Amino acid sequence: MHVLEIVFSITLFAGLAGCEGSQGPAGADGQPGDPGAPGDPGDQGDPGDQGDPGDQGDPGDQGDPGDQGTPGEDGEDLRFLPPSDVYFSTAVTNNSGDMQTGQYGILLTFDEGLDPVDGGEDAVVVCERVASPPEIDGIEREWEWGGFETAIDLEDLPFSYWDADTATYIEDPAYDGGVAEVDFKCAYDDQYIYFRASWTEDGTTVPNKGIGENREFKRLKRSGGAWINGRDAAVDGDTDKNEDRWYMMFPVSGTDGFMDAWQEQGCTLLCHTSEYASDGSHGRMRTDDPLDMTDVWHWKAARGGALGYTDDQHFGFADATNGGWNGRYGDNGDAPYVENPLAAGVPTFMRVQGVADRAAPSPIFELDLFDPGLAWADGNTIPGVFVQVPAGSRGDIQGVGKFDAATSTWTVEQARLRDTGHGDDYQFRAWTVD
Q1: What is the pLDDT of residue 19?
Q2: Is 103 exposed, middle or buried (0-12, 13-18, 19+ CB in 10 A)?
């Protein structure tokens, strides 16, 4: 290098080092700093005012059904409970429709912890549950009925009786009704109730009644060229033909006064001995209020009993214009018999066999209209009643009776559903109080 070039280079460098240079471009921004520590929370503000309620929303969809709940305990089946106790009345008639020997205010209890009580109106009949039903045939079998029996003393309960000599009804006679006592048994199961009664005919002072098996009712007999009803008077020395009978009566419904009085007075509440029907017949049985009613089990040796049935009836309200003072009514349905009344002095019916004597009841299929043109003669007899199978509420009760001629003793057995579902019957239920 030349000396001149060296001097120039030194001079130039020295100039540059001594002079202030121009502002250079700005440098790039630096990295952000670390975040600061969080500040302390501020004070809680005051709550705002309550807002107005919003509009009612639409109902939601039906939810799914919940799970099945636990089954409740089984209720009591009233069929398997003993029926409630009840007071009843009973009566027996010996060849008569109007001369009762009976008893009222008898307690029928289903409490087998009690003992039977013999006697009159204070008697107690204990009804026993049985595993097998007794056979209803009028034949005593001790083992069928359990161990309870009650001897019920009977009292004379006369209305009046027909006196053939004077052709009038005699009221309140001094008479012996012919039956002093009836022996009672009762049994039941889940469906049925059963009764057995046994009584001995031991005498009577009323004319023409007699002692023995009386299965005829109003038999018609030709005598002196005319037809005579055997119930109204003795015919040719015969006794009356008015069948042997047994009653039981239970309260169905009534006013408070009637139901309360029934316990003490029983069927005597129904007796009205001074009232006579338009046909002149004896005193009537009836209630004094349309609300009062009693169930009547009326076993009749001819009318129904001859076919194995008890006539199911009831006593209700009657007055001069309703029933002609006669408050005895048949239950709804067909009776177990059809009577054969005299009309204009001749029978209404005869047997299809024609002139073929028979005084006892005949089955309904033998019934025919009476033919006066046949060769009827004195001494001929025609049944006063034709028997048939009853129907409806009137046919609820089976009843069979057998008579022991050696001892003059009747044994009658009956059976009926505990609850018939009929409003004219007493129901043997376990009555509950709500």
Answers
A1: 39
A2: buried
Q: Rounded to an integer, what distance in angstroms lies between the CA atom of residue 89 and that of residue 213?
A: 24
Which tens digits make up the pLDDT trace of 47-102? 767 778 778 778 778 878 878 877 766 655 556 789 999 999 999 988 876 677 88
Asked if residue 351 lies in contact with residue 383, where contact means CB atoms within 8 angstroms, the answer is yes
Residues 6+ apart with CB under 8 A from 134: 141, 144, 145, 187, 194, 196, 413, 415
CA–CA separation, 39 and 240 (whole Å) = 128
Contact 92, 156 (CB under 8 A): no
Task: Name the token pair of 178.
Answer: 């012919």
Adjacent-strand bridge partners of 309: 398
Measure the CA–CA gap between 209 and 92, rounded to whole angstroms.
Answer: 14
Is the Cβ–Cβ distance between 197 and 184 less than 8 Å? yes
For residue 16, what are the contacts with CB-CB under 8 A and spacing of at least 6?
A: none
- In three-state secondary structure terms, 221 is strand
Confidence band for 13, pLDDT divided at 50, 70 and 90: very low
Percent of the chain topping pLDDT 90: 47
Distances (CA, A) of 360 to 213, 312, 367: 12, 21, 13
Beta strands at 385-387 and 337-339: parallel, antiparallel or unpaired: antiparallel
Residue with tokens 């790039």: 28
Is residue 423 classed as helix, strand or coil in its secondary structure?
coil
Q: What is the pLDDT of residues 140-172, one digit of tens each?
A: 888 899 889 999 998 876 555 555 566 655 555
* DSSP state, residue 359: -
Please, which residues have CB within 8 angstroms of residue 113's CB and are 6 or more apart in sequence? Answer: none
- Phi and psi (nearest 5°) for 259? -65, -35
Q: Cα 164 from chain centroid?
A: 42
Structure tokens at 299: 């076993």
27-36, 127-136, 194-203, 255-264: which range is least confident on average? 27-36
For residue 57, give the H/E element and its range.
none
Contacts of 236 (CB under 8 A, 6+ apart): 221, 223, 379
317: which DSSP letter?
B
On whether the pTM is more than 0.85, the answer is: no
The whole-number average pLDDT for the span 191-213 is: 84
